[in-house]
Automatic annotation (TrEMBL):
Residues 4-253 form the Carbohydrate kinase FGGY N-terminal domain. The keyword Kinase applies. InterPro entries: ATPase_NBD, Carb_kinase_FGGY, Carb_kinase_FGGY_CS, FGGY_C, FGGY_Carb_Kinase, FGGY_N. Residues 265-460 form the Carbohydrate kinase FGGY C-terminal domain. It comes from the Bacteria. Pfam families: FGGY_C, FGGY_N. One of its GO terms (molecular function) is kinase activity. This is Putative xylulose kinase. Keywords: Kinase, Transferase. Belongs to the FGGY kinase family. GO terms for biological process: carbohydrate metabolic process. The lineage of its organism: Bacteria, Pseudomonadati, Pseudomonadota, Betaproteobacteria, Burkholderiales. The keyword Transferase applies. It comes from Advenella mimigardefordensis (strain DSM 17166 / LMG 22922 / DPN7). PROSITE patterns: FGGY_KINASES_2 (PS00445).
Length: 517
């Protein structure tokens, strides 16, 4: 009897679910869209109930599609969950009921807590334990913000749960955190011993009791679905839930990253570029956590821009009403229209550079008060020029992170696999190839993290062999070959890009102070 696995990806702006066979053929897909809440500058949060409702709707729809195609309930063998980096995690009470919105990866409100730790803590020792630095991106600084600014919530909080852990508990009643999510919290997880660090927790002033004691691999079964939740989803009672982990790492897994040197860029709301290295090496300027596959031996090291697709959406929604109206008249996407206009422009959009720091910036800048900037504007520039500059700025942010690995970049695979919504744009893919000098490949199946979750689930349930895992369920195709002349032009432009932030840092911080954060 054929078996099927459900893969779910809880993202920043949507939840996607699919059902795949053990050979990777996708049988059903569904998605539900939403937006994070950004009530103040540098704030980004989400009500956990939004994720739960999107999860339930997307899974129910997938199951209904599969049953309509003749699949029986008992053939659906399990479910695995990918989720966005939940930052602080969802603060829950002893019954796992959410007490406060989840401060997600985009949230940078914990600037004072970050400064305090940098002043008071032995940063070298903290890095030696955790493999990570100190920034308001990391979940442990966001936890401290809740402790300092919401003391009543802090007192009631039994645990902080990543989104995938909270959903898994909702389905099974079992409580656990995967190692990838635990490591990504930053200053609370021992990267060498693969456990919570009492020493690091004490150093940063957090309560070890609020860290769920059960840590699992991403391929481990956390529990089985209870009867009432199975009925709600249209599933058989008792099917196993594989815990899963961080979406960037799982999308990287879907992109074929299995061994040290493999690397993938994920371009969605934000940008993450990550590669694998051995346990004995260090991430230094980038983010470091156990990988979702063979995580005891391999680290996933990544850097990222706070806004990528988010910057493009912002620009189009705020400044391109005329193009939106024209696109509607022509029956095409506004993005298609803008790309047609931008594609005819030369590299650099006639002397225009964009810093995509619209929510501060992550690696390698690590500055919550960095801000978005257009440099080089003059009266000849049109919205098409600005649109191209935004895309080029995101490609420069990608290259900035790739540069941060230094000499280790020589050991990387000589192709760049790109996943995420940006792959729908041929212009983006060509610009990325021209900026980085790497041939750009994309996944033909276009299902990414949800497919990675399904494959991880199949691994955890023993439904696929290691050979099948190494081969993967996705196929990559070359999308863009770098043009040498364009690459040389972009290298000159990147030098300008790289110099802008240091030159403008003091001004950016002064403006942040004026707007109140």
């Amino acid at each position: 009897m054929d078996k099927y696995i459900i893969g779910v990806d809880i993202g920043t702006q949507s939840t996607k679910a699919l059902i795949a066979g053990t050979g990777g053929r996708v049988l059903a897909q569904a998605s539900v869209a939403y937006h994070p809440d950004t009530p103040k500058p540098l704030w980004a949060q989400q009500d956990a109930q939004v994720w739960l409702e999107a999860f339930l709707r997307s899974v129910r729809e997938c199951v209904a599609q599969a049953l309509q195609q003749g699949v029986r309930q008992e053939q659906i063998a399990g479910l695995c969950i990918s989720s966005l980096y939940g930052g602080a995690g969802i603060p829950v009470d002893a019954d796992c009921q959410p007490l406060y919105p989840c401060l997600i990866w985009m949230d940078r409100r914990a600037t004072a807590e970050t400064s305090m730790i940098r002043r008071q803590v032995d940063l070298q020792r903290l890095f030696a334990i955790t493999g990570n630095g100190v920034d308001s991106y990391y979940g442990f600084t966001k936890m401290l913000w809740i402790k300092h600014h919401e003391p009543q919530i802090w007192e009631k909080t039994a645990w902080f749960l990543p989104p995938n852990s909270w959903i898994a508990h909702y389905l099974t009643g079992e409580l656990a955190v995967d190692h990838s999510s635990a490591g990504n919290i930053g200053g609370v997880y021992d990267m060498q011993r693969h456990c919570w660090s009492d020493e690091a927790l004490a150093m940063v002033g957090l309560d070890a009791a609020k860290m769920p004691p059960r840590l699992l691999e991403s391929t481990d079964v956390v529990g089985t679905v209870t009867a009432d939740k199975a009925a709600l989803l249209g599933l058989s009672q008792g099917i196993p839930i594989v815990l899963g982990g961080i979406d960037a790492a799982i999308a990287t897994f879907a992109g074929g990253v299995r061994k040290p040197g493999d690397h993938v860029a994920m371009l969605g709301t934000s940008m993450c570029w990550g590669y694998l290295q051995t346990e004995t090496e260090s991430g230094r300027d980038l983010v470091c956590m156990p990988y979702v596959y063979k995580g005891q031996a391999q680290r996933y090291v990544f850097g990222g821009a706070a806004t990528a697709g988010g910057a493009v959406t912002w620009f189009v929604e705020q400044f391109c009403q005329a193009e939106q109206a024209l696109a509607a008249q022509q029956g095409v996407s506004v993005y298609t229209l803008l790309e047609q206009q931008a594609a005819s422009l030369p590299p650099g959009a006639h002397g225009l550079v964009f810093l995509p720091y619209l929510m501060g910036e992550r690696s390698p800048v690590w500055d919550a008060h960095a801000s978005g900037t257009f440099a080089g504007l003059n009266l000849t520039h049109t919205r098409a020029h600005l649109y191209r500059a935004v895309i080029e700025g995101i490609a420069f942010a990608l290259w900035h992170n790739m540069q941060a690995v230094g000499e280790r970049r020589q050991g990387l695979d000589q192709r760049l696999v790109v996943v995420g919504g940006a792959v729908n744009s041929s212009l983006w893919m060509q610009i990325i190839a021209d900026v980085t000098g790497y041939p750009v490949y994309t996944i033909e199946e276009e299902v990414e993290a949800a497919m990675g979750a399904a494959l991880l689930g199949a691994v955890g349930l023993g439904l696929v062999s290691e050979e099948q895992v190494e081969q993967g369920w996705t196929h990559v195709a070359c999308r863009a070959i770098p043009d040498e002349q364009a690459h040389q032009a972009y290298q000159q432009l990147f030098a300008v890009y790289e110099g802008l932030y240091p030159a403008m840092r003091a001004s950016m911080h002064a403006l942040a102070d004026m707007r109140g954060g």
